[in-house]
Amino acid sequence: MKRSAKFLTSVMLTATLLVPAMSVGAANGETAQQQGNETFRVLVDSANQNELKNAKGKYGVHREFNSEGFTTTMNAKQFEALQKNKNLSVEKVPEFSIEETSSKPEAAYSAMAASQSVPWGIKAIYNDSALTKPTGGTGINIAVLDTGVNVNHTDLKNNVEQCKDFTTTTTVVNNSCVDRQGHGTHVAGSALADGGTGTGVYGVAPSADLWAYKVLGDDGSGYSDDIAAAIRHVADQATALNTKVVINMSLGSSGESSLITNAVNYAYSKGVLVIAAAGNSGPYQGSIGYPGALQNAVAVAALENVIQNGTYRVADYSSRGYSATDGDYVINKGDVEVSAPGSSVYSTWYTGGYSTISGTSMATPHVAGLAAKIWATNTSASNTQLRAELQNRAKAYDILSGSGAAVGDDYASGFGFARVR
Q: What are phi and psi of 337, to 5 degrees?
């Protein structure tokens, strides 16, 4: 397969655009797409099992989704031909990408700055400006579905329990989750980095276990079928191992994927809590991306390190829900649920060092880490009870701050900033 991706990184929009690859052998300046050779992922389904079996034999299977069909890779001509078969339904599988304000870190460091050991977001979520060492998360797993993770990073290696790759083959590749982009390593650090030898960076829940699942390529984009397969795998692992798991998805798309929607619903039904980035398409109403927009996912907005009207300010780039739902205290499709530090966040980097990035991607692991920390203190609680506790803590903080007319539920910050105390 030959494809490339390109980021639009303004706060108006963050999405991945497919750019047709040039064919070396193209005649008369034609592109591979014009020749019908551009390849992409498709979902094929049918009520006719014989037709489905024949299609699998002809095109091969990348991912099998049973009642939802199967995915495979084909070119434009094959896609057009398959669409003519009235016994089959065929649709392109959408791509999802990392959600951040820029494609590059604002700053990268090879050595730890002492003042950054406990970044501002961690101090804020603990409500302790003098915090020197976060604690908690024992026995809870945080599954980071992202560009992979540098599992040998000094501040992360002690937490790694699983490392798997969903981007290359039809099966899960164990003990492989190499991060060549940086995003996934940064996200993991904010959730559970343990400070390494004591001089590294700390995350919210440094005693939590890390499940590092590579679902995105080195360009920061990936197909929804691989992501959906990873979500289902997390749920099955949680059941098989009888353990509590929080999924962190700092990725998104403006369009919904049925495969991911069904996978999120499946995971939620299995007791997994799903935390997802709201997206970076703010400040416009109704701009929450998927999977954050789903009702069974907790959408997280990004806060800046700026106090305004007694609380932290929601970043302009952070996607918004609908103002019509302000104050109803109900999470509907497309609503922000909670908010957390997301601007100028300092964390671990794939090189073994550290970097600073902004985005709802960075806010999400703060909430995932908080969820793990809370769950560790009451492992008998269900994922729905844990979700309610996050909402309650967010409302309590906003009420104390005395900010806003719609205290505790607004379209920009959701129930508010969920904190440790």
A: -105, -50
**Measured between alpha carbons, how far is residue 27 from residues 22, 34, 53, 288 in Å?**
11, 11, 36, 43
Please, what is the average pLDDT of the chain?
87
> pLDDT (tens digit, 9 = 90+) per residue, 118-138?
999 999 999 999 999 999 999
Contact, 220 vs 183, CB < 8 A? yes
Are the CB atoms for 367 and 391 separated by under 8 Å? no
Q: Six-digit token pair at 49?
A: 């099992």
User: Is 183 assigned a catalytic role?
Assistant: yes
Q: Please say if 233 is a catalytic residue.
A: no
Cα gap 328→324, rounded to integer Å: 9
- Reported as a single tens digit per residue, the pLDDT across 217-261 is 999 999 999 999 999 999 999 999 999 999 999 999 999 999 999
**Cα dist from 329 to 273, 318, 405, 414, whole Å:** 19, 20, 14, 9
118 contacts 345 by C-beta, under 8 angstroms = no
Query: What are 349-375's pLDDT values in tens digits?
Result: 999 999 999 999 999 999 999 999 999
The pTM score is 0.89
**Whether the predicted pLDDT of 395 surpasses 60:** yes
Q: Count CA atoms closer than 13 A to 175's CA, side-chain side.
A: 0
* Options 146, 179, 225, 410, the catalytic residue: 146
Token pair for 306: 């700026």
CA-nearest of 40, 46, 135 to 373 is 135
Question: Which candidate in 250, 319, 343, 361 is catalytic?
Answer: 361
pLDDT digits (tens, 9 = 90+) for 14-66: 332 222 232 223 333 333 344 457 899 999 999 999 999 999 999 999 999 99
Q: Which of 153, 183, 186, 366 is catalytic?
A: 183
Calpha distance 138→149 (Å, rounded)? 20
CA 411 – CA 290 distance, rounded (Å):
16
Amino acid at 11: V
Q: Indicate if 409 belongs to the active site.
A: no
The tokens for 244 are: 């509590």
Tokens of 299: 């959408």
